[in-house]
Amino acid sequence: MIRRHWIPPFGLAFGQLCHGASWVLALWIALRAGVGGLSLPEIGWIHLVALGWLTMSALSILLHAIPTFLDVRWQFETVARYSLGFFAAAVAAFVAAFLVAPELLWIAAIFVALTLVVYLATAALTLRDALRSADRITKAVARAFSITFFLLFVAIVLGAASAWIFSELPRPAWLFAVPPAHGSIALFGWLTLLIYGVSARTLRPITGNRSQRPLLHVVTGTATLAGAVLLAAGAAARILWLAWLGGGLIAAGAIAYGVDVATILAGATVTHRVPQCFVGAAVAWLGAALVLGAGVLTGMPWQTAFGFVMLAGWAGQMVNGHIFHVGVRLIATIYRGDEDETPPEELLDSRLTWSAFTAMQFAVACVAGGLLLENAAIAAAGAALGIMGWAAIVTAIGAARARACT
């Protein structure tokens, strides 16, 4: 009988493969295509990161997180796990289409959408059981996950419609208003809202501390949800005041989240600091991204820098922090048994983890600076640092695996 691990190792491994590939692609773009504007390779980079790295990692972790948070059994779990394999293949084809065959993008997008819909169907059945719970907190958490998954579904539909623009079939004029709405829902309604919700639980083992301000969670979730919808509507309809209103609500949610996380980190009792520093850096990059986003609304040409900092800075560094905790815990249980409780720091080499942290922050800063200044050399240097940081992550994880085997 094949042993089933609590988080599918394939999902996290594929996510890290896409993570590394994203820095290589960023280096190629800087050296060959240059920076400035939003080219097809750059849009391919966005989806390589958003789908291949971040969404794949999130969906893999959620297979464990949702049953643990809600005390339910994941319905049709085998189907959900297999759907991740098909999703990986679809993402690879989708990103490749941006680079070599844009006329096939709409076909690849349909396959991406179908694989995600299969996963979401199993998630919906799982959350249905939790929504029937008599426990008020369980129902509230299940409701929050349901909303986040619904927004992922909306992002999928809008994304597939956006890909239709690249087809050779008839394209109605309204279709060209869809991509801005797709981006807003995907970045804030799906990825950001999901990170807010999941980190409320995962920061406890990472820091040894927990939030003492439940009101901040309510402000964060409510403001971000409403803001994402309003920003998407404003961006699609080109109604500037509506987009500003949505952006303001998102900023309010981010401030509430930042205050909460800062308090949690300040009272951390766990001495393994690298994941905590990644989390702190992620929140700082979120603040930087929102400043860039405000600049975009005022007419500044900062769209690519904004998207990069949101993905590689905010969401990416949060995932990196969790990889050095959740990912190493997974490795320990794979090789030492499901009951193993070895702390991640006992398996990790601190020299490698701190090298990864440092390289990643400089990488994000340099690429963002290169995009803002339209300086390909600075962006290329940042991408090279990103490759080095990713290599340090992979080496650290490989060393942790070797130690877990002893």
Q: What does this entry look like structurally?
A:
There is one protein chain. Helix 5 packs antiparallel against helix 6. The model has no long low-confidence stretch (mean pLDDT 92). It is built from 13 helices and no strands. The chain starts with 8 loop residues before the first helix and ends with a helix. It is mainly α. It has helices spanning 9-33, 40-70, 77-100, 105-131, 136-163, 178-207, 214-237, 240-266, 273-297, 303-336, 344-347, 350-373, 376-405.
Highlighted features:
82% helix; mainly alpha; 13 helices; 0% strand; 406 residues
What is this entry, summarized?
82% of the residues lie in helices and 0% in strands.
Give the CA-based shape.
globular
Count helical runs. Answer: 13
Element order: H for helix, E for strand: HHHHHHHHHHHHH
- Proportion of residues in β-strands: under 5%
Number of strand segments: 0
Mean pLDDT: 92
Radius of gyration: 20 Å
- Secondary structure class reads mainly alpha
- Largest sheet data: none
**CA distance, first residue to last residue:** 24 Å
Low-confidence stretches: none
The percent range for helix content is: over 70%
